[in-house]
Automatic annotation (TrEMBL):
Species of origin: Lobosporangium transversale
Protein name (Swiss-Prot/TrEMBL): RING-type domain-containing protein
PROSITE patterns from the UniProt entry: ZF_RING_2
GO cellular component terms given for this protein: cytoplasm
Compositional bias (Polar residues): 17-26
One Pfam entry name: zf-RING_2
Annotated GO MF terms: ubiquitin protein ligase activity; zinc ion binding
InterPro entries: Znf_RING, Znf_RING/FYVE/PHD
Gene3D superfamilies in alphabetical order: Zinc/RING finger domain, C3HC4 (zinc finger) (3.30.40.10)
Family annotation (PANTHER family): E3 UBIQUITIN-PROTEIN LIGASE PRAJA, E3 UBIQUITIN-PROTEIN LIGASE PRAJA-2 ISOFORM X1
One of the GO biological process terms: protein ubiquitination
Length: 206
């Protein structure tokens, strides 16, 4: 049977893990920050202000691959396709060392992500990335939302934002510290003001 990974000539992260003599059940704790083990988990994460490396993109593709594997063969096809697209993007970015993708979200944006209480969420609301119902949430880091009002486990969205300044669901942009991104943003804003000023002038003198 040809899998999603064969079709896309990708290394199946789940198979790779099996061949490393890991258990058949995806062990998600491997990807999750461990409260008792701050030092080793933080060494697994990107130090602030560092350009992401190919291995950072690959590690996140592996985490999303484990979510996908967990819900097969049943599960939500639309959600699996959503994860497939994210995994493909991450593997492409790993190949290009992230050079062609969006820049990481800004450190202050990630730091100031809001905390959302479970009671604010509908009973069937699930994290867009892992598809786990928030009311059965086993992860301890809590729930957050992006300005586009999409909800996520913090454990799921923070590693994505450390690599991309957008929402993985609707692609709405969030701030970045990347100097090129800031420059482009400023130029686009100046162009917008210039265009508006021109319209005002046309109106005044017509
Ligand atoms: Zn999640
Ligand atoms: Zn969104």
């Amino acid at each position: 049977m040809s899998s999603y990974y064969d079709d896309h000539s990708l290394e199946d992260p789940f198979k790779a893990r099996q061949s490393n003599n890991r258990s058949l059940n995806p062990d998600l704790s491997h990807f999750m920050p461990n409260e008792d083990d701050e030092i080793s988990s933080s060494s697994n994460r990107l130090p602030p202000g560092t350009t992401p490396r190919a291995s950072d993109f690959r590690r996140l593709a592996e985490m999303f691959g484990a979510f996908r594997e967990r819900e097969e063969p049943l599960g939500d096809e639309a959600h699996q396709e959503f994860l497939d697209n994210l995994i493909t993007q991450l593997m492409d970015e790993a190949g290009a060392s992230g050079k062609h993708g969006p820049p990481p979200a800004s450190k202050s944006f990630i730091r100031d992500l809001p905390f959302v209480a479970q009671k604010e969420l509908k009973s069937d609301e699930a994290c867009i990335i892992c598809n786990e119902n928030f009311h059965e949430n086993e992860f301890k880091a809590g729930i957050t939302k992006l300005p586009c009002k999409h909800f996520f486990d913090r454990d799921c969205i923070v590693p994505w934002l450390e690599l991309h300044n957008n929402c993985p669901a609707c692609r709405a942009e969030v701030p970045s510290d990347d100097p090129d991104w800031i420059k482009k943003k400023r130029e686009a804003e100046l162009a917008k003001y210039a265009a508006e000023a021109e319209i005002d002038e046309d109106w005044m003198y017509s």
